[in-house]
């Protein structure tokens, strides 16, 4: 398993996302993922499955310190009044004293960046989290985040072969930050893509594995594919036994011209 080292953190490059998994399914899949060798698990307050994820980690034959656990504070809990109580509730549900990474899930135009970042730094000072970061923050907001002096390590955003994230990726590289890719297979839209399929056939892989491999070969990129399928769980982690050529990477890079965004709620910020 590839690891990414950033600002003192060592993070398994490929993790399990749990978006849209109900509590019981999240428990089953997290438990199976840990048994398969996953050591990076991502959840969020709004997923309403922190309890399932926490029970799976508690029941695992793997020490808590071996798991890199992320959760995210929902946009309606970003105010000074609600922030820390919401994190304390998350820790209780997750059955742990700390998470490894705590993120701002989405910005909220009604709460200033400086306010929620101050609370995020407080959570870190209290030992509720080892590392901090943000999610769904375009470069304009990242400038405000970094102006607070917060020592963030990542921005978790939609990233897959069919979207153009060049501007954001370049910004993150320049500021020594990782990009954590959610929806790394564009919620299945990579399946059937002729370029990805042609490359996949060469290696005896599938389009999903080629997409994940493309991400794994980029500097400071992490990916958290979500699945509820045990077979997919196994195949998603099977991307470390082949390597794309530079020509193949270039072919995949061309797919971003479609610039397909699959996650774009009404409250999303103005994207780069």
TrEMBL record:
PROSITE patterns: ALDOKETO_REDUCTASE_1 (PS00798). Residues 14-256 form the NADP-dependent oxidoreductase domain. Gene3D superfamilies: NADP-dependent oxidoreductase domain. Keywords: NADP, Oxidoreductase. Pfam families: Aldo_ket_red. Transmembrane segments: none annotated. The keyword Ion transport does not apply. InterPro entries: AKR (IPR020471), Aldo/ket_reductase_CS (IPR018170), NAD(P)_OxRdtase_dom_sf (IPR036812), NADP_OxRdtase_dom (IPR023210). PANTHER family: 2,5-DIKETO-D-GLUCONIC ACID REDUCTASE, NADP-DEPENDENT OXIDOREDUCTASE DOMAIN-CONTAINING PROTEIN. Belongs to the aldo/keto reductase family. This is Aldo/keto reductase. It comes from Pontibacter aydingkolensis. The lineage of its organism: Bacteria, Pseudomonadati, Bacteroidota, Cytophagia, Cytophagales.
């Amino acid at each position: 398993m590839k690891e990414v080292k950033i600002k003192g953190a060592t993070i398994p490059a490929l993790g399990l996302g749990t978006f849209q998994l109900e509590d019981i399914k999240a428990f089953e899949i997290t438990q199976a993922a840990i048994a398969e060798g996953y050591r990076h698990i991502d959840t969020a307050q709004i997923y309403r499955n922190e309890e399932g994820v926490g029970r799976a980690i508690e029941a695992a034959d793997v020490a808590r310190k071996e798991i890199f656990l992320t959760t995210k504070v929902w946009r309606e809990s970003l105010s000074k009044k609600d922030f820390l109580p919401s994190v304390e509730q998350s820790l209780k549900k997750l059955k742990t004293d700390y998470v490894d990474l705590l993120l701002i899930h989405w910005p909220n135009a009604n709460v200033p960046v400086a306010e929620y970042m101050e609370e995020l730094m407080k959570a870190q000072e209290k030992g509720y989290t080892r590392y901090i970061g943000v999610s769904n923050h375009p470069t304009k907001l990242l400038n405000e985040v970094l102006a607070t002096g917060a020592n963030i390590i990542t921005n978790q955003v939609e990233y897959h072969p069919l979207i153009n994230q060049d501007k954001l990726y370049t910004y993150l590289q320049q500021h020594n930050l990782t990009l954590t890719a959610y929806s790394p297979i564009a919620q299945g839209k990579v399946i059937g893509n002729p370029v990805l399929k042609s490359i996949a056939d060469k290696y005896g892989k599938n389009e999903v594995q080629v997409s994940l491999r493309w991400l794994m070969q980029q500097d400071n990129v992490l990916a958290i594919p979500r699945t509820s399928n045990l077979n997919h769980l196994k195949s998603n982690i099977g991307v470390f036994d082949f390597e794309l050529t530079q020509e193949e990477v270039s072919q995949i890079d061309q797919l971003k011209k479609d610039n397909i965004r699959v996650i774009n709620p009404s409250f999303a910020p103005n994207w780069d």
